[in-house]
Design a protein that fits this description.
Length: about 90
């Protein structure tokens, strides 16, 4: 994933279980898109975590979809870990 980033696109924020998930898609110099996701707790002053997903997509909408699906998996894992006391 050494592709140079030419342009970034931002998707709309989605709220899930008290978390804000925002997908991003970077257009590479090869004309493909790399999905990224920002996530933070839904209250002022919360820190933001950025996750770059090691995948190449053919369109920005596909990249947004991949980012949100991965974000939902991360939130589900976090919720399970919290319930188990991890």
């Amino acid at each position: 994933m050494n592709a140079l980033r030419k342009k970034m696109y931002t998707g709309k924020v989605e709220l899930h279980n008290g978390w804000e998930l925002r997908p991003y898609a970077y257009l590479t110099s090869e004309g493909t898109y790399v999905p990224e996701l920002s996530a933070r707790k839904h209250h002022p002053g919360s820190a933001i975590d950025i996750v770059t997903i090691n995948e190449i997509c053919g369109s920005k909408d596909d990249a947004f979809s991949v980012a949100l699906k991965r974000g939902m998996c991360l939130l589900a894992t976090l919720a399970i870990g919290t319930r188990l006391g991890a």
